[in-house]
Amino acid sequence: MSPPDPAILHTLSLSPTPTTKTTLTPHGGSGFSRTAKLSITSHSSSKTPSSHPPLQRNYFVKTGPGPDAKLMFEGEHVSLNAIHDVVPTLSPRSYGCGELRNEKGVYFLVTDFVDLISSSSSSSTSKTLATKLAHLHTTPAPSPPGFSTPQFGFPVSTCCGSTPQPNNYASSWATFFADRRMRFILDRCAAAHGKKGGGGEGEELQRLVTQIVEDVVPRLLGDEVLRSPDGGPIVPVVVHGDLWSGNAGWGVIPSTSTTSTTDDKDDEEEEKEVGEIIYDPSATYAHSEYELGIMRLFGGFSRATFWDPYLSAVGGKCRPVEEFDDRVELYCLYHQLNHHALFGGGYRAGAIATMKSLVRKYGRG
């Protein structure tokens, strides 16, 4: 155990007092940061601890060195709150991020501590991921400062894995996806694997991505082609952006719990809402179906418990309905290329196969 850095306490508007105990203990693990549980235990000043149980609040803290950690934590901070503001029980709240006071060049993120549980502990009334994600994906994004309408993009860069993604705003989803995702990730692949593209000719990868951007994206995602389930234009909504099964689970977010007072005493009892939650986001204001690409790529979401109830709750597939699977494959492609850039291996072969299939179907020859 170690005392929390003063910058973390300042972010939480906390200061040490004789009746407050703070502890920071390692908790969990991450490939990109150190993780810890911050516990704040407070005793009432008017009652002794023996007559009134102490109040304890827990927080989750990530720390990491250098500008990469700074960028990652800033993106996660804004991402978590963009989701939490729409569906508070879907993701933890972030309280802030910044540089540690006692370790220069080391950065932190502090969020709600999520009590993860097994799905068997949930009740029949627990809200499912399908219900919550449908709510998220049917709530229009706010208009950014300086714009009169919602835009595709995000106010900060976000990291998908360790890949820092540009999120400059665009009024067209096809433009955003082509430039901020496909062209961007092609450059990341070239930077990671050189001209050979990692185990094969880089020219093939570049040629296919160019065909995807110039032929397939306009054909599947063009403003005059892609429509919402009700036939109107698609609108930006916040998406998690990296929603594989490892970033979802069952649990309790303490900041969304309510309290009730019993009739015969002043003690407050916390009523915890257990449900499916998501974390470690890489958010963007995007086309809602963009979320589904990585969910399909890595699996873990069943038709009965997620896909069917989700599509019913959002009003069905976007139009053209018959092109839904191909749009999701196109969104899978971005994550295949991102994993190729990050890890190499067999992801390149999967991406090549996906691109060849889409180009055969929608390419201009």
Question: Could you explain the architecture of this structure?
Answer:
With about 375 residues, the protein is an alpha+beta fold. Helices cover about 35% and strands about 20% of the residues. It has nine helices and 14 strands. It has helices at about 5-10, 65-85, 130-135, 175-195, 200-220, 290-300, 305-315, 325-345, 345-360, and strands at about 20-25, 35-40, 55-65, 95-100, 105-110, 115, 160, 165, 235-240, 250, 260, 270, 275-280, 285. A hairpin with a 7-residue loop joins strand 1 (about 20-25) and strand 2 (about 35-40). Helix 3 packs parallel to helix 7 (about 305-315), helix 5 (about 200-220) packs across helix 9 (about 345-360) and helix 8 runs antiparallel to helix 9. The longest helix has 21 residues, at about 65-85. It is globular. The termini are far apart. Mean pLDDT is about 90; it is low at about 260-270.
